[in-house]
Each structure stands twice: as C-alpha cells, then as structure tokens.
TrEMBL record:
InterPro entries: Cytidylate_kin, Cytidylate_kinase_dom, P-loop_NTPase. This is Cytidylate kinase. Its main location: cytoplasm. Its EC number is 2.7.4.25. Residues 5-197 form the Cytidylate kinase domain. It catalyses: CMP + ATP = CDP + ADP; dCMP + ATP = dCDP + ADP. It holds the Pfam family Cytidylate_kin. Belongs to the cytidylate kinase family. Type 1 subfamily.
Amino acid sequence: MQFTVAIDGPAAAGKGTVSKAVATHFGFAYLDTGLLYRAVGARVLDGADAIEAAQSLNAKEIDGSQLRTAEVAEAASKAAAMPEVRAALVEFQRGFAKRQGGAVLDGRDIGTVICPDASVKLFVTASAEVRAKRRFLELSEKESSVDFEQVLADVKARDERDASRDAAPLVAADDAVVIDTSELTIKEAVSAAVSAIEAKL
Ligand code: C5P
C-alpha cells in the first residue's frame, strides 16, 4: 500500500511528536526532513559550501543526535532558503514518500512541494509564545543559562525567514487540515491527527 502523510508547520509546534506518534500508530515509516537541512547546516558551520554539502549528502547516514542545537537550526534555515540546496534534497524525500507500507514526512514544504498529491496533509501550528515556551523548556534541560526572550526572538526570526523566502516558503497547503496545538495536550494533538488520517484511509 502506498499512503503518504505530509505534515508541515513552524518550529516547535509539535510536528515531530505528532509525526512520530502517528507513524507508530499506523505502522508507517517516518522521515524528519528537517534533519536533512540540519545536516547541511552543520556542514556549513564546519566550513563547507551549502550547495556542495546538500549535493553530496548521504541522507541515510545522518546522525540526528548532534543536530538539535539552536546554532545548527539557524544555519539550516539559512541554507534552506537556497533553491539549489532544496533541489538537491527533493529526490530522496520523494523516494521515501513512495515506499510501500505508508510514510509520514514532516517539514515545511511537504504538502506544497515535495508531495502535492499526499494522501493526507496536516499543518501543525501553535502561537509563537507557546512554541518558544516549549523550546525553552527543552533547551533548559540541556543548558543552564537559557534566556526565554532570546528563544522567543530566535523562534520568530526562523519563522520569518522560513515563511518569507521565495523557495518553497512555509505555508499551509490549501487542502491541509490545520491542527493548532497551542491549547492541546500531546494526546489531544495526536488524536486529532489520527482522526484526520483515518478519514482518508
Ligand atoms: O524542522 P526543523 O526545525 O528541524 O528544521 C530546521 C530548518 O530546516 C527549518 O527552520 C527550515 O528552514 C528548514 N526546513 C525546510 N524544509 C523542510 C524541513 C526543514 O526548509 N522540509
């Protein structure tokens, strides 16, 4: 069975959590496409050229454990604004989406550019303040001196860059089901996503 779930939305809206949960629920494979851009961003921080890094990326060998820092996210979002970087990552993502047995992909442009014919499209979002608070709590577990105002400013700056770029800007597809998680628990957000998917199965 080929069944593709496209999940897009801004940073820290709960996309990853919802995506992993629905992939497990339905037994679908899961791809966090942000990791592809983060891997490119990390290479740029090491001095590489963004386009060359994207073109030579071996997506199957990405180790996400080193890539979830604010610095890498910032470099990823800058590299992600370059059309050549995005173009180099398209084929891998489309190949993943077509695998048998169902696939969930999360990112910024899955429902609009990568899989415009996805079986289900979800746009998972939340207010900037709620998202910054979640990111703040997450970062506070790893670092001691995290400043909320700084985290909020970073979240807003990354949203602004992702939404205003010419190449595949962050926007909900016309046929996406919008799930605003600002006032939802994880369980409620997951169950909204499961219902939307079940309606199309
Ligand atoms: O989702 P995550 O925060 O890991 O993504 C990091 C950055 O990669 C985003 O801010 C965005 O600029 C970029 N990205 C993208 N398209 C995707 C996934 C991520 O442009 N499909």
